[in-house]
Design a protein that fits this description.
By secondary structure, this protein is mainly alpha-helical. It has helices at residues 2-43, 49-58, 60-88, 93-112, 115-119, 135-173, 179-201, 206-230, 235-238. The protein is 80% helix and 0% strand. α1 (2-43) packs antiparallel against α3 (60-88) and α2 (49-58) crosses α6.
Length: 245
C-alpha cells in the first residue's frame, strides 16, 4: 500500500512537472519572439545609427518592455533548467547534470548581457555629461550597445548548443518521450552552434544563417514545450525507471 501511494504521489508530481515545464517553456518562446520581432526588429535600423536613435526615442517604453521580457525569460529559464534535469535524469544522471551545467552557464551569460540593452538607453537620456558628445557619437553608442548584446547572446548560444545536443540524446534514449522530439532537439542544438560560430567567424553571413536555422530551432523547442504541456511523458515507460528523487 505504501509503495502504491509513493508511486501515485511520484506520478502526480511528474504530471505537475511536465505541465509546468510546458507552460514555462512556451512563456520563454513567447517572450523571445516579443523581444526579437516586436521590439528589436521594429526599433533597430541596420546600418543607420541615426535612424535607430530616432526610432528608440519614439519607442523608448517599448524598448524597456523588451528589457523586462528578457529578464523574465532568464528568470523563467532557471525553472526550466530544474524541470528538464528532473525529466532527463532517469536516463543518465551524469549527462543530465552536465546538460544542466551548460544550460545554467548559458542562462547566466544571457542574463549578464541584458545590461547591454539598458546601456542602449543611456545616450538618449538627459544627463549633462551627454552634451560632451555629438549626435552622431550618441547614435554610434546606441548601435554599439545593440551589437554587443547580439554577440553576447551569440556567446550564450554557444553554451546552449551542447545543452540541446545532450538533452536531445537523453530524450532519444528515453522511452517515455518520443524519439523524434530528441532528434528535433538535437537539430536545434546544431543550429544554435552553427549560428554562434558564424556570428564570430563570418559575421557577414550571420543574418543568412539565422534565417536558415530559425525554423528548425523553433520547431524543436515548440514541439517539446507542447508535448510537455498537453501529453507529458509516457507513464508506463516512466515506471520502468527507479530514479526520481
Amino acid at each position: 500500500m505504501d509503495n502504491m501511494t509513493t508511486i501515485t504521489r511520484n506520478e502526480s508530481l511528474l504530471r505537475s512537472y511536465t505541465k509546468i515545464g510546458g507552460v514555462l517553456y512556451l512563456m520563454i518562446i513567447a517572450l523571445g519572439i516579443f523581444y526579437q520581432v516586436i521590439v528589436r526588429d521594429s526599433i533597430n535600423i541596420p546600418g543607420d545609427s541615426m535612424a535607430t536613435m530616432a526610432s528608440l526615442k519614439e519607442n523608448e517604453f517599448l524598448w524597456r518592455l523588451g528589457i523586462v521580457a528578457e529578464f523574465l525569460s532568464s528568470i523563467i529559464g532557471f525553472g526550466v533548467i530544474l524541470i528538464m534535469y528532473k525529466l532527463t535524469k532517469p536516463v543518465n544522471k551524469d549527462l543530465a547534470m552536465l546538460a544542466a551545467f551548460f544550460n545554467l552557464s548559458a542562462a547566466t551569460i544571457q542574463t549578464v548581457y541584458i545590461i547591454q540593452l539598458i546601456e542602449v538607453l543611456f545616450p538618449i537620456g538627459s544627463s549633462a555629461y551627454l552634451q560632451a558628445f555629438t549626435t552622431e557619437q550618441l547614435g554610434a553608442m546606441i548601435s554599439l550597445a545593440m551589437k554587443s548584446h547580439v554577440f553576447g547572446f551569440g556567446i550564450a548560444l554557444l553554451m546552449f548548443g551542447p545543452y540541446f545536443l545532450i538533452t536531445g540524446y537523453l530524450i532519444y534514449k528515453s522511452n517515455y518521450l518520443p524519439k523524434f522530439i530528441g532528434v528535433l532537439y538535437t537539430i536545434s542544438g546544431i543550429g544554435y552552434l552553427v549560428n554562434s560560430f558564424t556570428l564570430i567567424l563570418a559575421p557577414q553571413f550571420a543574418g543568412i544563417v539565422f534565417m536558415i536555422i530559425a525554423l528548425p530551432v523553433f520547431v524543436g523547442e515548440m514541439t517539446l514545450a507542447i508535448r510537455l504541456l498537453i501529453k507529458g511523458v509516457n507513464e508506463v515507460e516512466w515506471r520502468k525507471y527507479s530514479v526520481w528523487n
